[in-house]
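Protein in question filed below.

…
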Amino acid sequence: MFYHSIANINVYDSLALDRFATQMSANRYLKLLGDGQVQLIEDGYTGYVRSQDFEYLEAIDPASYVPPKALTSAQIRECIPDAIAYIKAAMQQPNRYLWGGTLPPDYDCSGLMQAAFVSMGIWIPRDAYQQEAFVQAIVLDALEPGDLVFFGVDKATHVGMYLGEGQYIHSSGQEHGNDGIDINSLAGGDRVADWYAQQLRGAGRVTRCLQTSLAIG
């Protein structure tokens, strides 16, 4: 069964419903997989929703679904200033780091990146390691504003957006981060920047849109 969401819905990572996997904004599409599990169409993400939230889903005819428009690399680059502006505006609102957060005001790292691009009509994957695999890899010396920078040891576990002049903006957690959205230096220089500088693993450029369909899964 395919559905359209008529409200924002939290999606959890297990049947225990005790930790967010992601959040689904109103007007997204999904497929029911059974036993409370859903698969979000636009990025293929799977998770579980509370039984009471099913009232915010309306059944649709799969033939009525229109996938997001694919943009060229050049068209995406034209959107980058607006994606940066989205994140800077989000930083100006009172916010905190929220694992699984993709809706304002509280985001996790990759949720913020996805939300910024989605605001421009550009879908990218949900998690940092998925985003790293999706982007066009670039060397750090070639970084341009709007490129994504990735951190982690065995795989990407954190992501931010490069702003220029060695600075990046990201949503980071409490223990080693800013507990919300802030700007830090790739070279280090403070508690948060130093922590992530030692885990900097690479960078990439969004040059395409994620394309999925109702047949996914």
Remarks:
- The longest strand covers residues 158-164.
